[in-house]
Amino acid sequence: MTVTAHLRDASAVRSSPGPLSRARWVPTLAALMLGAAAGTASAQDRAVSTASCVSADRAQIAALFDRWNASLTTGSPDRVIANYAPDAVLLPTLTNEPRTTPAEIRDYFVKFLKNKPQGTIDKRVIKIDCNVAQDVGTYTFRFADGSSVKARYTYVYQWRDGQWLIAHHHSSAMPEATRP
After folding, report:
1. What pTM was computed for the model?
2. How many domains would you assign to the chain?
3. Is there a single domain that holds both residue 22 and residue 68?
4. At a CB cut-off of 8 Å and minimum separation 6, what does 173 contact?
5. Co-location of 46 and 66 in the same domain
6. 157 within 8 A of 167, measured Cβ to Cβ
7. How far, in Å, CA of 113 to CA of 72, rounded?
8. Other C-beta atoms within 10 Å of 79: how many?
9. How is 54-82 classified by DSSP, letter by letter?
């Protein structure tokens, strides 16, 4: 009996008067459970068989910051946001407003790039998993006017459409710099 037939049988059992017959509901329940498990297993098997992890090493992930930093030197917000996934989240260093759309991220960089920033990594930890990588640490930004800001950062990269893109970028000024 198919799962669909058991579903019809289960429906008939619910609507029939009198006590439920164990002979009727146990096989129906068992078939439903087996059918659900088989459907889940085959969906999981398909996902595993079609998914593949792109191999990356620490140097390749570190180079993603260099790519992003080089895009800053162009002065073009569009070149900078090309590093971000369309659904990326940016928690920027110099404003309190989370940026959750490409337009909002672009708006931040229009203003940020006017200062001609250039970043330098001070300390980092890189972790790599299947099609996701994290670059976490501290960096210093120097600006054309001679000022600088030290900050903590997190970049979460995802492998999408044949390239590593920033899915999440959080940057916050060091608390020591903001304490009275």
Report:
1. 0.70
2. 2
3. no
4. 93, 94, 149, 150, 151
5. no
6. yes
7. 7
8. 16
9. PP--HHHHHHHHHHHHHHHHTT-HHHHHT
Q: What is the Cα–Cα distance from 160 to 42, expressed in whole angstroms?
A: 25
Q: What token pair was written down for 30? A: 């068992």
Q: Which residue range forms the structural domain that includes residue 24?
A: 3-50
Nearest-angstrom CA–CA distance, 127 and 37: 34
Angle at 174 between CA 79 and CA 89, to 5 degrees: 40
Per the listing, tokens 């044949």 go with: 162
Taking residue 84's Cβ as centre, other Cβ atoms within 10 Å add up to: 21
> How would you write the pLDDT of the chain (180 residues) with one tens digit per residue?
443 343 344 444 344 444 444 444 344 334 433 444 444 444 444 344 346 999 999 999 999 999 999 999 999 999 999 999 999 999 999 889 999 999 999 999 999 999 999 999 999 999 999 999 999 999 999 999 999 999 999 999 999 999 999 999 999 999 875 555
Place of tokens 């030290």: 150
